[in-house]
């Protein structure tokens, strides 16, 4: 089955002033104006969603968010619901990014803390809330270096996929997007070998197949993320199980982001 490639830029906690966000979003819109046949998404910080919404309006570039809470409203200080994101013009939501998942319950030194205790259970609640709001979740999964070296990659990835999908129906599943992001490849410049990235994206698809059957498995889109750059994108994106990319650092420069999109 032909799946439409999907490239998402995760700006993380960057380009968060209105001026920066507006400039980058406008550059992305201009850089991909002639490109068709690819779903292009930008995921800025919450504070500039409105700004970026205005910048991408009327273009093919879609608006995404970096997380969502599972409750719709209430006394949940600091949280943002999927319903609120929908109202803000968001169509896609990154969930379970490794920078929000917990790891082994080991406290980290303050200067390096960047994990917020996300578990498969909270990712699952968020996936269901995002689907209920009519938005598309981009579900992140991936192993740490320790897990890879212990030979646990396939187990970690398949259990994260299955854990995210409890209670998600066969009717809801075809639209899902997954992002396989080996944690050791994120922001390190150490990209996963394309053949291995394809193999693990195949594990994601196989897990979906075991839960929902072959048609759904053929429909879901699986991105690779982790140091994808203009010079390695074509080889990664030509792999049969890799339908796109979740891009961090290279999404902060419109020319690099566009080069990756053009390789899809
Ligand atoms: O969400 C994006 C990923 O964490 C990849 O980040 P990166 O491209 O900077 O390695």
Automatic annotation (TrEMBL):
Catalytic activity as recorded in UniProt: D-glyceraldehyde 3-phosphate = dihydroxyacetone phosphate
Active site: 97, 181
Gene3D superfamilies found in the cross-reference section: Aldolase class I (3.20.20.70)
Pathway note: Carbohydrate degradation; glycolysis; D-glyceraldehyde 3-phosphate from glycerone phosphate: step 1/1; Carbohydrate biosynthesis; gluconeogenesis
Keywords: Cytoplasm, Gluconeogenesis, Glycolysis, Isomerase
Database matches in Pfam families: TIM
Binding-site list for substrate: 10-12, 187, 227, 248-249
EC number, as in UniProt: 5.3.1.1
Predominant cellular place of this UniProt entry's protein: cytoplasm
Protein family: Belongs to the triosephosphate isomerase family.
Function: Involved in the gluconeogenesis. Catalyzes stereospecifically the conversion of dihydroxyacetone phosphate (DHAP) to D-glyceraldehyde-3-phosphate (G3P).
Subunit structure: Homodimer.
Protein's name according to its UniProt entry: Triosephosphate isomerase
């Amino acid at each position: 089955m032909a799946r439409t490639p999907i490239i998402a830029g995760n700006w993380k906690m960057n380009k968060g002033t209105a001026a920066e966000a507006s400039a980058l979003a406008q550059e992305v819109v201009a850089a991909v104006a002639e490109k068709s046949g690819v779903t292009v998404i930008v995921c800025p910080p919450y504070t500039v969603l409105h700004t970026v919404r205005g910048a991408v309006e009327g273009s093919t570039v879609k608006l995404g968010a970096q997380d969502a809470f599972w409750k719709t409203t209430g006394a949940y200080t600091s949280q943002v619901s999927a319903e609120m994101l929908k109202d803000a013009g968001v169509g896609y939501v990154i969930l379970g990014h490794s920078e929000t998942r917990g790891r082994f319950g080991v406290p980290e030194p303050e200067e390096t803390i960047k994990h917020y205790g996300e578990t498969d259970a909270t990712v699952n609640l968020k996936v269901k809330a995002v689907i209920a709001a009519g938005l598309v979740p981009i579900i992140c999964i991936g192993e740490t270096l320790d897990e890879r070296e212990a030979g646990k990659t396939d187990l970690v990835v398949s259990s994260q996929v299955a854990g995210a999908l409890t209670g998600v129906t066969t009717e809801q599943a075809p639209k899902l997007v997954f992002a396989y992001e080996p944690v050791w490849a994120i922001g390190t410049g150490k990209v996963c070998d394309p053949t291995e990235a394809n193999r693990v994206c195949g594990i994601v698809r196989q897990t979906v197949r075991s839960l929902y059957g072959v048609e759904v498995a053929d429909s879901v889109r699986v991105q690779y993320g982790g140091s994808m750059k203009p010079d390695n994108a074509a080889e990664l994106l030509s792999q049969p199980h890799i339908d796109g990319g979740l891009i961090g650092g290279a999404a902060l420069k419109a020319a690099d982001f566009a080069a990756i999109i053009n390789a899809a």
